[in-house]
Amino acid sequence: MSLRLILAATAWLLFTSIQHSKAQLITAAANPKVDYVVPSRYDLEIPQIDLISGYLGNRYQLNLEKRLLQVDEEGLLAGFENRPGKQRWIGEHIGKYLEAAANTWLVTKDPRLKQQMDRMFHRLLETQDTDGYLGTYLAENRWTSWDVWVHKYDLFGLLAYYGAVGDTKALKAAVQIGDLLCSTFGDTPGKKNILKSGSHVGMAATSVIDPMLDLYRWTGDKKYLEFCRYIIRAYDFEGGPAIVNSILKHKRVDKVANAKAYEMLSNIVGLVKMYRLTGDSQLLQVINYTFDDISANRLFATGTSSDHERFQDNHYLLADTSAHMGEGCVTTTWLQFNTQLFSITGDLKYYNEIEKTIYNHLLGAENPQTGCVSYYTPLIGEKPYRCNITCCLSSVPRGIALIPYLNFGLLNNIPTLLLYEPAQIKENIKTSSQKTIPLGLTLTSEFPRKGTATVQVHIPGSAQFPLQLRVPEWAKNYTATVNGKSYKSGPDQLLKIERQWKDKDKIAVSFDIETEIINGGKTYPNSFTLKRGPQIFALDQSLNPQLQLDKTKFVYPLQDNIKLTDAQDKLPKGWVGTLAYATEIKTADNGQQSLVFVPYADASQTGGFSTLWVPAVSR
């Protein structure tokens, strides 16, 4: 049986099974004790059932099968069980794994994953010292180098596991870590300066602000909130990164400390959570300046940032392998940042960045055939996939695990479809008369190949309530039809349909997916690529063996001259993905050449050269 059929069968069985009711999920899991002060516009909680198939679902399942279930368990735990570890940051990986595994298990309920993460969780707990220490350093080297950083990811993993499974031992271990950090670091006599316990102007250590705020939410213990206030004060200590004040002053992230992208963004995600918990308007300014600056000046077309792990000058976006661009940790943290902002505001500009990142650089960083991950994922050159344990190879699966949390949810308290991948969804909603009913949605489509979808509604009897459909920024001629009545919308909008719904009502959705020409900007002014819907395309040498992709130049095509034809038959046996398009383009020497484009996320999966930016001369 094919993977696609297995996914469809699994989705239907889970959709119709009473074993995964909302009541049982709540019984099995825990809930935070502290609500955000700033109201959420989009609920990030997973629905009762949310199973995606199709293009994204296939890659999500491969992340489970090829990456999470294949991790080196002994390697992840060795540094804890036999201190010190062989890498300074070896301890971060178990936390990253537990977070990705817990989020994935909440969706899939895969028993293999449950057994694996339970086993690794219990082995990890056995290594925690009585004072709460859960690192990989010898006693004489505690709180040096990456020790606080390791505890940061311990917290992420333990709290995610607790939230998914409800095992109080996980929360107890996290509390012990939090208490140890609070008693060790601070600006009162006898405590250590956290800036001196981490790299990159202290930003590695101070990024523990993010999960410490989660710990405050889970426990309600205000000492964790006060500890995070201390971290914000510490930014401005002598030799500190001055994250808040630098961004307020310059409105540029490349002017902060040493511009280290991953550690800085991790801190700023923490500042987003601090804003959500306190309503501090100054932090909101910092958050907005950060988004505006990165999205306008430092973002690659595929939804990532960083060059040699740092934010560079405006529009300096070198994309080949030598630039070490698109660090996987930055890709995932940028996704987390936009997810938080979308949750706060419901503003589609943040969701557009989420969609861009998921469909392009996030998936492009994990080989769909092997589950291996590239630390840096270039737009020009061979993607250097590896299967060993290292920083970004643990981060990318965390990002992929978030996908089902972002395709459907309550946006402004209205059930909202955000993506058009095939899916089975079930959630309790309130009707217009405030009655709670179960809502099921079966979404059938061939997206992203075709701009059509059918959404079937499953409810007991009939009920009146609104249902929202996101109209993507790239969609043209969008129409949704229910029982002969059509609803139209322009791009980048939310289309709300409120009516008396009946069981098995269907919404027929159609939209045009046009091909766009994207130019290489200031860094690659004489290059172009193609974009279709949310997907950026690339040329893979293995599909274009007649070309020297790093040398051949083409005549820059006019927008209306690009015509794509399906070239799925050009894909080799074993290729993961079914999207390939051919087009005829003139070469600089007045010849004509057929090119086969594939989504950037699929390119280079068989090894070898691929390029997103195609060299060209103007017409």
Automatic annotation (TrEMBL):
Protein's UniProt keywords contain Glycoprotein: no
Keywords: Signal
Domain Non-reducing end beta-L-arabinofuranosidase-like GH127 middle: 429-512
Record Gene3D superfamilies: 1.50.10.20
Signal peptide: 1-23
Domain of life: Bacteria
Annotated Pfam families: Beta-AFase-like_GH127_cat, Glyco_hydro127M
Annotated GO biological process: carbohydrate metabolic process
Non-reducing end beta-L-arabinofuranosidase-like GH127 catalytic domain boundaries: 86-400
Name of this chain's protein: Glycoside hydrolase family 127 protein
